[in-house]
């Protein structure tokens, strides 16, 4: 039996030794930046680039912005430091954002609540926009450090060269030295002030998105204006020899913000409340700026933020007649991207993307075709590492609680799409990020 | 957000039917793959040392498993037991990434126990075998990239096999046994529903089941120098009934995963047909070859039936479409002295898992097998045998058709082992 004891000791020691004999699948030479110089990567863009999510810009979203994810992956192949204009930990909730608090017990509809503590809001400033007009700008605690992520929520492509834009956008204002109303540095000049070796540019979404989310109230950027502005931005970004990647503009009509509340659902609920209800009326675009009331169809997209409680009210909208249920009091234009406006938005986005691809091709830049990606996601869904994702609100996993911006998982997927496009264009092999480690919508 | 106040009489809540929108999409309900990786061929230290050959040999009580037909020919009675601690070192690297994920160091303990007895001078011998021909212990942890396909699996199947063997002539014997299988499985997987802290949900399937089968064989002493054995171990379809299906998800979505819940699943542990030859060129030498065919093609799909279904928690039907597998083995034993025996062997096993179906439960591929062993005759009646097996499961790069988990798997398996046999 002494033998047995000896054997068991040998066996135990052997197992411990064997435990270190793991397979080795990763070799250092497998990843490389190729010919790219990733010393200083800057990210140019809007809210998507800033890491905006759940209807706000907040620290956790910033930390998981797609440029931050790309930069982290680049660091394994020689990428430099990547600084973001983070809100402080004390003001981690930044602009405030929406939180999911539960689901309505009877309808199953999600219930959200704004986060109102730990904000970085410093005040409201009235800024003149013309001789007789003004706008109110919310300002935030300034950020003064070095910046690599220049994502500014709300910025349109056509804003990039407006010198006074810093006075009109609180998210840009907080990056600039000096006080609001005194700013005169155009965004494009600001981001290119310091030398950089690589860039991503995802400007242009808001030139179409704002039109869509306001039900066609905000104007689409003129096609030719967009082309000229985009070419100008790319010329400036590549002027010193930097390489880069750009992304196309998604079909803004595919987002859950416009596909969750449907005319059919509103009609069904209205009928359930009053069996005499025949139809839902919307204010539909006829041509130019001529809107006429008509019966809503499933081609009309209702915004996610539409207060459905207005339906049937005789004081809402034009009043007198039940709101949304009568041609003399249709659902207002601002809540509906009607079928004609949908066509318009699609048509403009096609034109914008042709301009983006042409400008990128002229400079040999990588292109992440976000439009194709989102269209495929909407049509077919996507399975990554055993998780089914799609373009649905909340359940889809990609879109955050505002129905427009992405979840952390969504941004990680975007980062990997950018990386794939960069690798394909520049023969680099920047490793992709682990999508599984980024959460989707958080549930209480 | 969309709810009316009770005072607005014309307005009833707009039903967005969010619950139906929710999670009709989750591919996250656990499903399990059985593969060659789950067939554990560690059935006797003497045999393991010789490349796990033994269908055509008369080594010891392990013939109860290797070939019940040979039991009646065994020269003595046996009581023996062995254990083969198994270290399954699997790694995964996603396509396009520079990250490697490794399974945790966990040691599975396949074991064997055999008894063989026959009245002196009788043509009959009776046997009992308790062994673990299927199992798996894989723990990838809950932070790896494939956590939504699997975090851990602990599968155990213990077979009990009473056996009878009869010597027809001095050259030919037959035997057969009835098999009862007691199986247990604990399978865990992350659910992609994040809590307020960002932590994933978790699914755990925890069940026990049983199944029946049989094992029969023929053994022939063809000549002084040759012995031949043929063995058939039947399919053992093991049904796990009313196992616990535990889903931990954030409270607001728990209704999608009703608790408590149970599941039922059927696991077809496939039949194995083996032929083995023993060759004795010299009194101190034994050479053995075995060939086995494993009928994995019965494994077409894996289905889970939940007692409480919801729109989210549907019964699952996962295609597996295995093809048959085969294993070729060769081994040798040299009796260095009256006390010591040296053994060595090797083999090659082809995977039944087709491209696109490899899963992290037991990431399967063709494998090379190398073995060595040492036998020591401590007393006239007591043998101590030690064995070592190394399995080189070849690296395999593919994208799973169900989960899109894409990357390269590589597995090394290290299995030392020891047994004691008392014979008289």
TrEMBL record, chain A:
InterPro entries: GDSL (IPR001087), SGNH_hydro_sf (IPR036514). SUPFAM superfamilies: SGNH hydrolase. GO terms for molecular function: hydrolase activity, acting on ester bonds. PROSITE patterns: PROKAR_LIPOPROTEIN (PS51257). It holds the Pfam family Lipase_GDSL. This is G-D-S-L family lipolytic protein. It comes from Mucilaginibacter myungsuensis.
């Amino acid at each position: 039996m002494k033998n047995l004891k000896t054997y068991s000791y040998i066996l135990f020691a052997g197992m411990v030794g064997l435990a270190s004999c793991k397979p080795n699948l990763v070799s250092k030479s497998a990843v490389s930046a190729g010919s790219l110089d990733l010393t200083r990567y800057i990210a140019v863009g809007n809210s998507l680039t800033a890491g905006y999510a759940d209807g706000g810009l907040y620290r956790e979203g910033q930390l998981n912005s797609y440029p931050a994810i790309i930069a982290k992956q680049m660091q394994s192949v020689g990428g430099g430091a990547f600084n973001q204009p983070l809100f402080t930990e004390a003001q981690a909730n930044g602009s405030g954002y929406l939180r999911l608090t539960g689901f309505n017990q009877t309808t199953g509809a999600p219930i959200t609540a704004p986060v109102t503590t730990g904000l970085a809001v410093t005040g409201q400033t009235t800024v003149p926009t013309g001789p007789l007009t003004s706008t109110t700008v919310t300002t935030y605690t300034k950020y003064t450090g070095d910046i690599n992520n220049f994502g500014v929520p709300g910025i349109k492509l056509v804003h990039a060269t407006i010198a006074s834009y810093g006075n009109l956008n609180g998210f840009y204002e907080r990056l600039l030295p000096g006080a609001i109303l005194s700013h005169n540095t155009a965004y494009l000049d600001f981001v290119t002030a310091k030398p950089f070796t690589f860039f991503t540019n995802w400007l242009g979404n808001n030139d179409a998105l704002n039109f869509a989310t306001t039900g066609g109230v905000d104007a689409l950027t003129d096609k030719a204006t967009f082309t000229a502005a985009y070419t100008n931005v790319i010329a400036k970004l590549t002027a010193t020899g930097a390489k880069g990647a750009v992304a196309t503009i998604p079909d803004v009509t595919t987002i859950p913000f416009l596909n969750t509340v449907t005319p059919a659902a509103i009609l069904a609920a209205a009928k359930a409340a009053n069996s005499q209800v025949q139809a839902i009326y919307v204010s539909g675009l006829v041509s130019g700026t001529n809107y006429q009331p008509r019966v809503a169809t499933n081609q009309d997209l209702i915004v996610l933020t539409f207060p459905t409680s207005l339906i049937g009210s005789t004081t809402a909208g034009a009043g007198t007649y039940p709101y949304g249920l009568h041609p003399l009091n249709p659902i207002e234009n601002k809540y509906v991207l009607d079928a004609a406006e949908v066509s318009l938005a699609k048509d403009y986005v096609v034109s914008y993307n042709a301009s983006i691809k042409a400008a990128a091709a002229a400079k040999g830049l990588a292109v992440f075709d976000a439009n194709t990606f989102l269209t495929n996601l909407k049509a077919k869904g996507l399975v990554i590492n055993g998780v089914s994702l799609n373009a649905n609100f909340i359940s889809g996993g990609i879109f955050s609680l505002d129905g427009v911006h992405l979840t952390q998982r969504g941004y990680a997927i975007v980062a990997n799409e950018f990386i794939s496009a960069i690798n394909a264009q520049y023969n680099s092999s920047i490793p992709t990020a682990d999508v599984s480690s980024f959460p989707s919508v958080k549930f209480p | 957000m969309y709810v009316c106040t009770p005072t607005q009489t014309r307005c009833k809540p707009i039903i967005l039917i969010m619950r139906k929108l929710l999670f009709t999409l989750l591919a996250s309900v656990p499903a399990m793959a059985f593969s060659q990786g789950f067939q554990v061929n560690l059935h006797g230290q003497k045999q393991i040392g010789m490349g796990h050959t033994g269908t055509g040999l008369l080594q010891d009580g392990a013939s109860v498993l290797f070939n019940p037909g040979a039991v009646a020919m065994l020269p003595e009675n046996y009581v023996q037991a062995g254990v083969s601690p198994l270290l399954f070192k699997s790694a995964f690297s996603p396509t396009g990434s520079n990250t490697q994920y490794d399974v945790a160091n966990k040691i599975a303990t396949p074991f064997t126990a055999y008894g063989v007895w026959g009245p002196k001078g009788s043509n009959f011998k009776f046997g009992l075998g308790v062994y673990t021909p299927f199992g798996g212990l894989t723990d990838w942890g809950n932070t790896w990239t494939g956590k939504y396909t699997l975090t851990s699996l602990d599968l155990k199947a213990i077979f009990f096999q009473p056996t009878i063997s009869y010597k027809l002539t001095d050259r030919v014997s037959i035997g057969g046994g009835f098999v009862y299988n007691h199986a247990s499985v604990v399978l865990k997987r992350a659910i992609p529903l994040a809590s307020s802290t960002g932590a994933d949900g978790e699914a755990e399937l925890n069940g026990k089941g049983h199944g029946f089968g049989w094992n029969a064989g023929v053994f022939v002493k063809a000549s002084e120098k040759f012995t031949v054995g043929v063995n058939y171990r039947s399919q053992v379809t093991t049904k796990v009934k009313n196992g616990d299906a535990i889903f931990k998800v954030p409270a607001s979505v728990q209704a999608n995963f009703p608790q408590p819940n149970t599941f039922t699943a059927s696991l077809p542990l496939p039949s194995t047909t083996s032929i083995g030859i023993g060759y004795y060129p010299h009194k101190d030498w034994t050479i053995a070859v075995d060939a086995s065919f494993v009928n994995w093609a019965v494994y077409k799909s894996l289905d889970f039936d939940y007692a409480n279904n919801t729109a989210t928690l549907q019964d699952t039907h996962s295609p597996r479409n295995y093809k048959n597998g085969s294993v070729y083995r060769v081994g040798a034993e040299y009796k260095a002295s009256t006390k010591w025996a040296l053994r060595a062997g090797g083999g090659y096993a082809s995977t039944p898992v087709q491209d696109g179906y490899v899963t992290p439960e037991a990431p399967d591929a063709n494998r090379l097998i190398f073995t060595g062993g040492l036998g020591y005759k401590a007393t006239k009646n007591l043998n101590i045998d030690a064995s070592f097996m190394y399995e080189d499961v070849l690296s395999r790069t593919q994208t799973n058709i169900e989960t899109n988990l894409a990357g390269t798997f590589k597995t090394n398996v290290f299995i030392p082992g020891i047994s004691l046999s008392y014979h008289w």
